[in-house]
Amino acid sequence: MGCFCRRVYKKKIIAAYNRNFCKIKISLENAEHYSWGTAKDSCHLLKSKRLSVILERMNPEASEIIHCHQNSQQVFYVLSGIADFEMDDKVEKLLANQCINVSPEKLHHISNSHLEDLKFIVVSEPFIQEDRIEFLNYSPELIEHIKTLNLVW
Predict the structure, then answer these.
(1) What pLDDT, on a 0 to 100 scale, did the predictor assign at position 80?
(2) What whole-number distance in Å separates Cα of residue 109 and Cα of residue 64?
(3) Label partner for 89 (CA 20 to 30 A): which of 4, 5, 13, 58?
(4) Rounded CA gap, 92 and 99, in Å?
(5) How far apart are CA 85 and CA 92, in angstroms?
(6) How many Å apart are CA 20 and CA 41, to the nearest integer?
(7) Please, are residues 132 and 67 in contact by the beta-carbon 8 Å criterion?
(8) Would you give the DSSP letter of residue 66?
(9) How far, in Å, are 9, 18, 67 from residue 136 at the CA level?
């Protein structure tokens, strides 16, 4: 009787452990995939309320819209290719095995102006869903009109 109780108790501990941690190995075959813009493929390696890890692949000449996140900080880590990363009106070239950190509320965007695919990992904390604010591109000659509209409103 005592042996049976220990076995049942041990199974409950293992079940609780499995519920709280990774249940399966994540691979490209079983990860949640999605597409955005002109990017080739993206997949969630981890997706929780507190942390997001995404593997992304961008086509040559692909770019995202300049944006910021209200609360999330991000790390972009390049696996292969060359990333053009704009932040604070400066463009940094990130090569394989290089990364950049983006604080909340920092305007930024990543693009691939090169001939080969760009593959990178984005780690976001907390998860960025509904945290993103996108900014439409504008040309310098429109700045005066925008200032005038702001005064009128």
Answers:
(1) 97
(2) 6
(3) 58
(4) 10
(5) 5
(6) 29
(7) yes
(8) P
(9) 58, 45, 9
**Residue 98: helix, strand or coil by DSSP?**
coil
60 is written with which tokens? 């040559």
pLDDT tens digit sequence for 100-134: 999 998 889 899 999 999 999 999 998 877 788 77
Residue 91 bridge partners (DSSP): 86
Give the largest CA-CA distance in the chain.
Answer: 84
- The more confident residue out of 150 and 7 is 7
Which residue do the tokens 């990860």 mark?
A: 31
Cα three-residue angle 143-145-146, rounded to 5 degrees? 65
Q: What is the DSSP letter of 28?
A: T
* pLDDT on residue 21: 54
By the 8 A CB rule, do 101 and 75 touch? yes
DSSP characters over 99-145: EEEE-TT--EEEEE-SSS-EEEEEEEES--TT-EEE-----GGGHHH
Q: Looking at residue 105, what is its pLDDT?
A: 86
pTM score of the predicted model: 0.72
Helix H or strand E encompassing 84: strand 83-87
DSSP single-letter state for residue 64: P
Q: How is residue 63 written in tokens? A: 């770019």
